[in-house]
Design a protein that fits this description.
The complex is a heterodimer of chains A (about 525) and B (about 300). Chain A is of the alpha/beta class. Chain A is about 35% helix and about 20% strand. Classes of the chains: A alpha/beta (about 525), B mainly alpha (about 300).
């Protein structure tokens, strides 16, 4: 089975790509053919070699062996600028936009031709560029204002500006690296529509992803990588996506290829009745959150969903004592902890998987052992006296975490920065689980994780639930929420716009709450009640 | 009071502002490209010294100016090599420039002239009066007090603004200061842009020093810049890294200097050291109070290396 029909000249043809980084064999004789005018999915877990392969395509890394052909012509790029000149654009997971600049400035940056003197003296024609940007934006349904400052745009809009930037440079082929990782479901839908329009125009798209629904919706073909090698290709026809049985089989087959074993199904969950653990009343930060009431019982996973920036981070900060509320109270196990320090709250049994790993989850330059035992350094077991830390115990503890959570690293003494993002996250999750918490505040716990690692985190959270702990799950991934949560609340503008139990989960209703479509009647708090009445 | 606020006062304010404006422009270009430059003071001293030395040796003050450009290039290239090419700590590199600039120039005076501290007079740059400008209504009398050199300095302000804010080169330079990684992804050679910007800042600062030594005066004196390089830096921050506002702040510093000078004539009982501290106090107060949170270019101070 081949990635594309043999009789067609592929838009991208990678042949026999091989690359080693020291002991790691990142790419093993990879062949990849991408047919023009198609959306080609590149699937694989973290560390499967997808990024390395794409970096080789863009000339950011040189392959040890193998050739790259664009539209049938052999190429060897030395920079992404050269790749762009040849008609290939890349949208990285981390955007390369300048927040302080307008959209149009980001588009024309570094593009002007002409002599050095003219570029030093001639005025940039921003209005003409803006007109062209508006025209492109119109054509593909981006809805982007060319004069808007990028820092004022939402993540979804920035994603579109990135695509616009590639198209601006004349890209006929686009590579998108997990483009929906940070998008809310409505934003992701808009992006899918854009990608479909691009395909309809005859452009070629390589979609790096591990989200099955979007792969099934968009891709014509997929290539699956595992451990640096191609493990299979698959064609996805219209029939596959419409027939639910065929679709489920195909999805299962692709997941199996990706992780190399049967995908671990989540166990069925019996409803549990536990004691009240978290009791939040009238909580407000006086600005972006509240007033908010929220109760969590033992043996319950409650998800907080909503478009990013609607008070989720503020809620987490208040719960963890990282900021002070202006109003309201927080009780854990019937103890008022509103004025407690973060350290005291941790001791009281709250654990926290932080949303932004880089900002508050790990110290990049410190060793795995330091990162794993941070927050345990007050008293036993690692600090038996005030004067020293039990170094060997900390390392042993770290090694246990590495073993238990399958963190890929040769040593607990290496710096955190030597790990891939997914492996860093596994260590952080392991660290927080090791607290045996009463309440786990898990903010985007699987962001950027591959299916295998995400599944491990899901099992861990369900294990906590089994043991009678309460889990507050903040997630942008509704599939994850549906799989885990007993209950969900939708946060919008810092307030709860609606709530549902697992039996009532309804993606359309959630979407309406998230977008505020029910805002026609302000000052009422829509809850589960209206929907139920309709049914009745 | 009308005796005090005369045209001569404002003219002297403009004259005193020029040696702050030039290094300010240099610092601004440098920092907008993403490199911190607290070495302006040392670069100015190098320029002031180079100008006098070349004027002394050649007997031609214009070649003296050229000598200042040379020392500016030298100090700029040294800082650029340390902070851009070798990716050293930018603050430490620039501090080294300050220390070497002050020390080396002071040490070279006795070596060349055989006397300590102040050099003898050297040929100074002529400051031709401008024809006809006296007739311009309103500002004419003020402009008549200025020389062609002053006007060139003011024109440079406009030129820097134009290049920075309106041209492709300026956009590239600002991109490097806001996000080196994004600029690199857009095909901009970050290292080259920053190298050129740092070098240019050396030249502009050196010209500011030369203005002090062979335009205003005709000699070099150890540490004669008296912190103007730091004032230029303060003006840049105070102006939030924008050319127009920073220029106005420089004019404000010039005016404060001029008032201090003039107050010396009018009042004898005020200690004049206190008066001369006025611009510095002004800078301190401004920075500490109503400037608010000054945020520079997002990527300033971070050495760039390709991933």
């Amino acid at each position: 089975m081949s990635g594309a029909p043999e009789n067609q000249i592929p838009a991208i043809h990678l042949a026999g790509i091989d690359k080693r980084f020291g002991a790691v064999h990142a790419n093993r004789a990879i062949d990849l053919r991408v047919a023009p005018g198609s959306i080609h999915g590149l699937l694989g877990e973290n560390g499967a070699g997808k990024s390395t392969l794409m970096k080789i395509l863009f000339g950011m890394i040189h392959a040890d062996a193998g050739t790259v052909e664009i539209d049938g012509a052999p190429v060897s790029f030395r920079s992404s600028a050269e790749a762009l000149a040849a008609g290939i654009g890349m949208v990285q997971q981390h955007f390369s936009l300048i927040g302080a600049f307008s959209v149009v400035e980001n588009l024309i940056m570094g593009r002007a031709q002409g002599s050095a003197l003219s570029r030093l003296t001639r005025k940039l024609d921003l209005p003409a560029a803006a007109a062209r940007a508006a025209e492109l934006s119109e054509r593909f349904g981006f809805g982007i204002d060319p004069w808007a400052k990028v820092s004022t745009l939402s993540v979804g809009a920035r994603q579109k500006v990135e695509i616009l930037k590639a198209l601006w440079g004349g890209a006929r082929t686009l590579v998108l690296d997990e483009p929906t990782a940070a998008l809310s479901p409505p934003e992701a839908d808009e992006l899918y529509a854009v990608l479909e329009k691009l395909r309809a125009e005859g452009r070629t798209i390589v979609l790096i992803s591990h989200k099955m629904p979007e792969v099934m919706r968009l891709c014509d073909r997929v290539t699956v990588l595992r451990d640096g090698a191609v493990v299979g290709n698959a064609e996805i026809s219209a029939r596959d996506t419409t027939d639910p049985k065929v679709r489920a089989e195909l999805e299962a087959r692709m997941v199996d290829m990706m992780i190399g074993r049967e995908s671990p199904a989540l166990p069925d969950r019996a409803p549990q009745e536990g004691p009240l653990i978290l009791d939040v009343r009238g909580l407000s930060d006086g600005h972006r959150l509240g007033p908010l009431d929220l109760q969590l019982h033992g043996g319950e996973i409650v998800a907080v969903v909503g478009v990013e920036g609607n008070g989720q981070s503020e809620l987490v900060d208040l719960l963890m004592g990282l900021s002070k509320p202006t109003d309201g109270l927080i009780a854990i196990d019937n103890r008022n902890v509103t004025d407690w320090s973060t350290q005291k709250r941790l001791a009281a049994g709250i654990a926290h998987i932080s949303e932004d790993r880089h900002a508050s989850g790990v110290a990049n330059d410190m060793s795995l052992a330091d990162n794993a035992s941070i927050g345990y350094l007050d008293g036993e077991p690692f600090s038996p006296g005030p004067w020293y830390l039990a170094w060997r115990d900390r390392v042993r503890f770290t090694e246990v975490l590495i073993e238990r959570h399958k963190v890929r690293t040769p040593s607990a003494l290496l710096p955190m920065s030597s790990l891939s993002g997914g492996n860093q996250q596994k260590l952080v999750v392991g660290r927080e689980l090791a607290r045996s918490p009463r309440l786990m505040v898990a903010a985007q716990p699987t962001r950027g994780l591959d299916i295998g690692s995400a599944s491990a985190v899901h099992h861990a959270l369900l294990g906590l639930r089994e043991r009678g702990a309460a889990v507050l799950l903040l997630s942008l991934d509704l599939a994850e929420v549906f799989a885990l949560a007993d209950r969900l609340v939708v946060l919008r503008k810092g307030q709860i716009a609606g709530a549902m139990t697992a039996a009532e989960f309804d993606i359309d209703q959630i979407g309406r709450w998230m977008s505020g479509a029910q805002d026609t009647t302000p000052d009422t708090t829509p809850a589960t009640a209206p929907r139920k009445q309709e049914v009745a | 009071m009308s005796d005090f606020f005369t045209i001569a006062l404002f003219a002297s304010a403009l004259h005193l502002a020029v040696p702050i404006i030039l290094p300010m422009l240099g610092g601004l270009l440098c920092e907008r490209s993403g490199v911190i430059n607290i070495g302006l003071e040392g670069m100015m001293l190098g320029g002031a010294f180079g100008a006098v030395a070349f004027s002394y040796v050649t007997g031609n003050p214009w070649l003296g100016l050229l000598g200042a450009v040379g020392t500016g290039l030298l100090s700029g290239v040294i800082l650029a090599t340390m902070s851009v090419l070798l990716r050293g700590d930018q603050v430490i590199g620039a501090t080294a420039i300050n220390l070497v600039g002050a020390g080396l120039t002071a040490a070279l005076v006795p070596i060349i002239w055989g006397i300590d501290g102040t050099t003898p007079s050297v040929p100074k740059v002529p400051t031709p009066e401008l024809p006809f400008v006296g007739q311009i209504p309103l500002v004419g009398p003020l402009l008549a007090e200025l020389s062609a050199i002053d006007l060139v300095a003011f024109a440079l302000v406009g030129a820097v603004w134009w290049v920075l804010m309106r041209t492709d080169m300026g956009l590239r330079l600002r991109a490097c200061g806001e996000s080196a990684a994004a600029a690199d992804a857009a095909g901009i050679d970050v290292t080259r842009v920053r190298f050129i910007a740092v070098t240019l800042s050396g030249v502009l600062a050196a010209l500011g020093g030369a203005y002090l030594s062979i335009v205003t005066l005709d000699l070099f004196q150890a540490s004669m810049t008296q912190g103007r390089g730091f004032l230029a830096l303060a003006a840049m921050v105070f102006g939030k890294w924008r050319v127009g506002p920073a220029f106005l702040v420089c004019l404000g510093f010039g005016l404060a200097d001029a008032i201090a000078l003039r107050a010396q004539i009018f009042t004898h009982d005020l200690p004049h050291d206190l008066l001369f501290a006025l611009p510095y106090v002004l800078a301190l107060v401004a920075l500490a109070t109503f400037v608010g949170r000054a945020t520079g270019p997002a990527d300033v101070g971070k050495p760039f290396r390709r991933a």
